[in-house]
Every structure is written in C-alpha cells, then in structure tokens.
Design brief:
alpha/beta; seven-stranded mixed beta sheet; 8 helices; 9 strands; globular
Length: 212
C-alpha cells in the first residue's frame, strides 16, 4: 500500500500507512469535536464517506454534519456519502456474522475506488456489540481479522467506542487490535497493538484453557 497522494489528517496528526483506528470517547460531544474536522475535510477533498450509526441517533448524526456546513442531502444523492443504520450492516438477519461484515467492508472500499473516489473514509459506531444479539461475542475477533485486509487499502476506518459503556477488559482487547488509537482527542500510534496472527492464537489458547 502506498499513501502517496492520499494524505489524511485526523485528531491533530497525519495518518501513515496504518489506517485501522480505534477512537475512544467519553461522550458524543467529545466525539464530534474530534471527528467533525476529519469528516468535513473528507467532503471538501471529494473523498467518499461511509458511516454506520445507531438508528436512534441517525438524525442527530445528520444534524451534526449539517451544523458543520455539510450538504449531506446532496452528498447522499451523488453517492459521496453512504449512511447505514447498524442493524442493516452489523446485525443484518438478526445476528452478527463477522465474516459477512468483513466481506462487506472490503466490498465498500472497492466500490469507492470503482466509482473514482480518492478514498473512502469510514466511521463505525460500535455500541451495537453491547446488545443481546447472536454473534456479538465475536466483536474482538472481528476487529483483529480486519487487520488481514485493511493493509491493502489506503482508506481510513475509525471504530468509535464510548468509554462510558464498554468495560475495561473489552477496551483492553479492542486497543490490542488497532494499530492506531485516538484517545484524549489525539491520534497516536498504538504501542499495545498485536498483529492478528498472534492475537488470534492467544484467543484460541485462552478458549482451550477455559474448556479444559
């Protein structure tokens, strides 16, 4: 992957080649204060935006984008902006299938390139994994497996986590599955990142220990 001609700034820093990012926030105001400049810059650069949100917060999301001066209706009509409710993506058919979602993510990245966009900038709100749906226990494995496909693309993917809702053990594992992290409103290279082969091996060994 080459980042030549695909420079992206977010949370005060320039992204390098690693573009799978976990973003931790304490509330929605903190989240949008950090991410709106990134979103707005993407619209202005002509990049494609791909967002996944809670259906109950869909209108709030659109309102916040519009308050930043973005013409979301026009962008949706042109195909520059794709907005999904998370039940239509992560929880389609009433359960979470990590392999189906990974394939869909890659399909969306390819579709953006096919349409001629320089980049697709993806943001996914992850609180769906706190709901009682089959398969949500595979969240961490899903995040690890994304690291097999994303290095082949220049497109940044931001996985948004609300620290007031996720427990410490999950946050720790999520941190270990992302090469980049936004915390305290600042983008940092993640020193706790574990490559997917090693991380998934650790997961298998832990499961075997629990079942023995």
């Amino acid at each position: 992957m080459s980042t030549v001609g695909t420079s992206v700034r977010i949370a005060g820093s320039e992204l390098g080649e690693a573009r799978h990012i976990c973003a931790f926030f304490h509330n929605r105001d903190e989240e949008y204060r950090t991410l709106l400049p990134f979103i707005k810059n993407g619209f202005e650069c002509g990049d494609r935006a791909f967002h996944v949100v809670d259906s109950e917060l869909r209108q709030d999301h659109l309102t916040r984008l519009e308050s930043a001066g973005l013409d979301v209706a026009q962008a949706q009509t042109s195909g520059q902006f794709r907005l999904f409710d998370w039940h239509d993506l992560y929880l389609k058919h009433g359960h979470f299938d990590q392999h189906r979602v990974i394939a869909l993510v890659e399909q969306e990245l390819k579709e953006g390139a096919r349409q001629g966009f320089r980049l697709s900038r993806s943001i996914g709100h992850m609180e769906w994994a706190l709901q009682n749906w089959p398969g949500v226990e595979d969240l961490v494995e899903y995040e690890a497996r994304l690291n097999y496909i994303l290095p082949a693309y220049n497109d940044p993917i931001i996985c948004v986590y609300d620290l007031s809702k996720f427990g410490g053990s999950v946050v720790t594992d999520i941190l270990r599955t992302h090469p980049m992290v936004i915390i305290g409103g600042t983008l940092q290279e993640n020193p706790f990142f574990v490559p997917p082969d090693k991380f998934l091996l650790e997961m298998r060994e832990q499961r075997e220990t629990r079942t023995n």
